[in-house]
Amino acid sequence: MEYTEIMVRYGELSTKGKNRKDFIKQLGKNVRHSLHDFPGLEIRAQYDRLHVALNGTPAQPVMDRLKGVFGIENFSPMIKLEKDFEQVKDTALEMVKAQYKPGMTFKINTKRQDHNFEFDTNQINDKLGGHILRNVPGIEVQMRQPDIMIKVEVRLNGIFLTSETIKGAGGLPVGTGGHAVMMLSGGIDSPVASYLGMKRGVKLDMVHFFSPPYTSEQALAKAKELTSKIAGYAGSIQFVQVPFTKAQEEIKEKVPEGYLMTIQRRMMLRITAAIAQLRGAKGVFTGESLGQVASQTLESMLAINDVTNMPVLRPLVSMDKTEIIKIAEQIDTYDLSILPFEDCCTIFTPPAPKTRPDLEKTRNFEKLVDVDALMKEAIDGIQVCNIRPGENFMNQQEDVFAELL
Ligand code: ATP
Ligand code: MG
């Protein structure tokens, strides 16, 4: 079928007033951004729906992109016709034939906005239904749950036919939920948490800590590559890399082993919150979930969270690893995440970190290091880049394999 436009329906229709206006405006912007390399399209975001006129562009690649835009409930490829009923009959028949298999049933569902059109909805249903019954041997009409549903809309500017509704990504348009930073490691969890944060409309900047020479160039490249995997949901993503070697070395030298991990995490969160503030962001997201590892007990979270008043959001907090992995596979980050490059945290984590650190002791041990100087040094050394969907950072295959061996 040669479709002429795609009609997009919004999610979470309960949003009203100003919020709703912002929602529609942002969604229009995000759709335009995600389809920017299809020059023939015309995109109009209206109060109740968004229309993408194809102007000869094939529908499928456009629909594949739309599937990744948050805020879309579903969409339908449509054919727009002039108000010529013979053409409508032919096209409806063609649509049915394209899907028909023996034993299937169908239904015509007409809506009429143009009350001057020569037929009313019942007449249109009857005429089109009759035409299909006469031309598709064996097919029957079924009112409830037909296999094939042809929707006909008679509008002022033409007649629109569609027979498919495709599920969208749901959620809220990225940008309507404010701006936060994401603590992104190279692991399985933080990319999934990023995806879920963006799904609620939050624009996220990635903050990644790395510790050369203890962590390799490839570990940094992996975090960037993970960012490019999920950048499609946001258009593009700012990536902030933070040098953490000096802080880790000093903490390791001065703090008792049981508290190394807690104090290291406090330092990471403190630096991240400062970066958030510098960028005007209002919260910090992490990929933590309760009970997974030593740093992810409530006592640990209390001792680590102590360094900031900013909201720390943990979209995975109550998810099982298997559920998290399922999403990682869906968003295509899993295979990358499991590549075995050392993370700065694993390298400096002692064999037996305290799972229930004491808050007062934590605060006291931390006084052994020069927090302000280490923070300043890390923040002075940050580098920022903008990452677009599909960009490659790990294409030096030989290096990758050399490290794996
Ligand atoms: P992940 O799979 O996201 O690495 P994890 O289960 O391995 O999580 P940790 O490695 O303890 O758990 O990390 C917990 C969270 O701390 C991560 O989800 C991430 O938000 C943050 N984090 C860990 N390492 C880094 C890093 N190098 N840079 C930025 N954030 C990090
Ligand atoms: Mg990890």
TrEMBL record:
Binding residue positions for ATP: M183, L184, H208, F209, R265, G287, Q296
Keyword tRNA-binding: yes
Top-level taxon: Bacteria
Database matches in InterPro entries: Rossmann-like_a/b/a_fold, ThiI_AANH, ThiI_fer, ThiI_N, THUMP_dom, THUMP_ThiI, tRNA_STrfase, tRNA_sulfurtransferase_ThiI
Keywords: ATP-binding, Cytoplasm, Nucleotide-binding, RNA-binding, Thiamine biosynthesis, Transferase, tRNA-binding
Any one GO cellular component localisation term in the record: cytosol
Single GO biological process annotation from the record: tRNA 4-thiouridine biosynthesis
Record has Methyltransferase as a keyword: no
Pathway involvement of the protein, from the record: Cofactor biosynthesis; thiamine diphosphate biosynthesis
EC number: 2.8.1.4
Main location: cytoplasm
One protein family per Pfam: ThiI_fer
Domain called THUMP: residue spans: 60-165
Xref: HAMAP family: ThiI
Family: Belongs to the ThiI family.
Function of the protein: Catalyzes the ATP-dependent transfer of a sulfur to tRNA to produce 4-thiouridine in position 8 of tRNAs, which functions as a near-UV photosensor. Also catalyzes the transfer of sulfur to the sulfur carrier protein ThiS, forming ThiS-thiocarboxylate. This is a step in the synthesis of thiazole, in the thiamine biosynthesis pathway. The sulfur is donated as persulfide by IscS.
Stated name of the protein: Probable tRNA sulfurtransferase
Species in which this protein is naturally found: Secundilactobacillus paracollinoides
